[in-house]
Specification:
about 120 residues, single chain
């Protein structure tokens, strides 16, 4: 139970894990579609084709969506944070300035309607 809890709480996978998820999802979805066509054609039943594909998609969700431990085998090692040197204004501030807005606006929000008309 602790394994399931840790998988859903963190939800973070590394970049290699993301690549693996993408490949697995593509392979499983295409494989489900092919299996569904074969089953539906061989049994002459469109409903079996549909149910086979839905089962394949459900299997894909089970394999891909949780952050399984094998998606976290290559953690990213970030560089250490640089410390600001006293008197050096080129180093980034470590603390947010009270004058900075707390949210960032998108480009569309930054342009007012009057500026767009001109």
């Amino acid at each position: 139970m602790a394994l399931l809890t840790s998988m859903f709480e963190s939800g973070r996978i590394d970049f290699k894990g993301q690549e693996l998820v993408s490949k697995l999802a593509t392979f499983l979805i295409v494989g489900s579609a092919l299996a569904a066509v074969v089953v539906g054609y061989s049994q002459h039943a469109l409903s079996l084709c549909f149910y086979t594909y839905v089962a394949g998609v459900a299997l894909t969700y089970i394999v891909v969506l949780p952050a399984w431990p094998f998606y976290k085998r290559n953690p990213v090692k970030w560089l250490p944070r640089k410390q600001a040197v006293a008197g050096n204004n080129t180093a980034p501030a470590l603390v947010d300035s009270p004058n900075q807005p707390t949210s960032r606006k998108t480009l569309v929000e930054d342009v007012s309607d009057d500026e767009m008309d001109n």
